[in-house]
Structure formats: C-alpha cells, structure tokens
Amino acid sequence: GYSKAALERLTQGMAAELCEDNISVNATMPAHQVWVGGTVYVNQVGNPDFDKIDLTGKRKDAEIMGDACAAMIRADYAQYTGNVKNDEETLRELTGLTTFEKYPVY
Q1: Which ranges constitute the DSSP H helices of the chain?
Q2: Is the distance from CB of 50 to CB of 100 less than 8 angstroms?
Q3: Residue 68 CB neighbours (<10 A)
Q4: How far is Cα 41 from Cα 84, in angstroms, rounded to an integer?
Q5: How far apart (Å, rounded) are the C-alpha atoms in residues 69 and 11?
Q6: Kind and range of the H or E element at 84?
Q7: Is residue 26 classed exposed, middle or buried when 0-12, 13-18 and 19+ CB atoms within 10 A define those classes?
Q8: What is the pLDDT of residues 4-30, one digit of tens each?
Q9: Is 65 helix (H, G, I), strand (E, B) or coil?
Q10: What is the pTM of this model?
Q11: Which of 39, 48, 77, 101 would bridge with 24, disulfide CB 3.0–4.6 Å?
Q12: Count of CA atoms in the C-beta half-sphere (13 A) of 79
C-alpha cells in the first residue's frame, strides 16, 4: 500500500540525488515472511499458541536477506541503484541464482 509506495519513491529519489556522489541507494524485502517469535502476534491476538501457528511458506531464517544485501553492496553502484526488489529478485538479477532451496522454508 502506501508504505511500499513511499519506500519506492524515497529509494528512487535518493538514488537520483546521490548518484553524482557515487552512492547507490536500493531497498530489498523478503519474498517470503521470515519466521520470528513476533510472527505469533501477527497471526494471533490475545493468548498466542505456538503450536497452532501455520508456518507453511515462511522462511526459517533471514540468511537470504543477508545474501541479497551483500550482492547489492558488491554491485556496480553506477549500474545498480534505485531498485526496490524482493530478496529472490535481487539474487536472481545480481548473482544469476535460479533456485532457492539453500534457503529453507517450512
């Protein structure tokens, strides 16, 4: 919604402003929700029950986000700036990765 649109405009605007200073600005987000304890409170209000949480499709950790950020840092700042993509899109584009089994989901 509005927050994502604001993030996209902020990222693209800062990228345009800072490119003359050789600074790239990009944003990434998870393609799949990452399981953390706080996820319980997103799914259940009141008295959360960990045994009743549906983890289907959620990532077991955020390693893929770290790898995507590292790929962005290694990218040519002049060629890769102003992007707002999810972690899988980022890795696909910058590293050529086509499968993501290395990053387990429930």
Answers
A1: 2-18, 39-43, 63-74, 87-95
A2: no
A3: 28
A4: 27
A5: 15
A6: strand 84-86
A7: buried
A8: 899 999 999 999 999 999 999 999 999
A9: helix
A10: 0.81
A11: 77
A12: 7
Cα–Cα nearest to 83, from 67, 96, 94? 94
Q: Say if CB 23 and CB 11 are below 8 A apart.
A: no
The shares of helix, strand and coil residues in the chain, as percent rounded to the nearest 5, are 45, 10, 45
Q: Return the structure tokens found at 90.
A: 């980022």
Whole-number Å distance between alpha carbons of 84 and 8: 6
Total Cβ atoms within 10 A of residue 72: 22
| Beta strands at 27-29 and 84-86: parallel, antiparallel or unpaired | parallel
